[in-house]
Amino acid sequence: MMHTIRSFVLRQGRISNAQRRACETLLPKYGIPFDKNPIDFEVVFGRQAPRILEIGFGMGDSTAAIALAHPEQDYLAIEVHTPGVGSLLNQIEAMGLTNIRIIQFDAVAVMQHMLPPECLDGVHIFFPDPWPKAKHHKRRLIQPPFISRLCSHLKQGAYLHVATDWEEYAQQILEVLTRESLLNNISADFASRPNYRPLTKFEQRGIKLGHTVWDLIFRRNHITAYSSGNR
């Protein structure tokens, strides 16, 4: 059993009236309640299409932009914070997007119970909480048990794309992903930002201040997940 990783803290935060209304009226339409049974993606999206999982979408700006630019793909977006969920719901409705579904729950539990084996064509984890204090590093999402479990849900050839603006965390992520036997790095170390990942407002401000963002893109190799020596 995978060790439980609590990679987030539920903060009250400030939620706008529009975000609250979206959660009340739109989440039943675009959301998937947490359940202990596997998702049937064809039923949820009403079609067979490439499936991309996004873990921790923040306010959802990048999620909506990517889904709008790639209507041929379906996106399962996971976030625990209500303001972000409300924000993405409003964008889905305003843009008329039909290829996003949201689960407002812990990503670790969703993987354990709701994702079938080898069901994903890609995974986006953009700017996960770096938990910069050393005593909090154990809360970081990108750790070997989490990546090991995540790989079992990737199809052969599927990709995992992680981006962070925290250099020390970037190095740790590179080490964790490199040590996972089911993953191969598409670059020597860090990758260039692919066109499909839009620059966020936060990232644009950081670049103007001289900050760096590290992208890591790995692909699932053709070793069977259940025969790996790490399991």
TrEMBL record:
GO molecular-function term, one example from the UniProt record: tRNA (guanine(46)-N7)-methyltransferase activity
One GO CC annotation: tRNA methyltransferase complex
Family: Belongs to the class I-like SAM-binding methyltransferase superfamily. TrmB family.
Protein name per UniProt: tRNA (guanine-N(7)-)-methyltransferase
Functional note: Catalyzes the formation of N(7)-methylguanine at position 46 (m7G46) in tRNA.
Keywords: Methyltransferase, S-adenosyl-L-methionine, Transferase, tRNA processing
Top-level lineage group: Bacteria
Binding site for substrate: K133, D165, T200, K201, F202, E203
Catalytic reaction list: guanosine(46) in tRNA + S-adenosyl-L-methionine = N(7)-methylguanosine(46) in tRNA + S-adenosyl-L-homocysteine
Catalytic activity, EC: 2.1.1.33
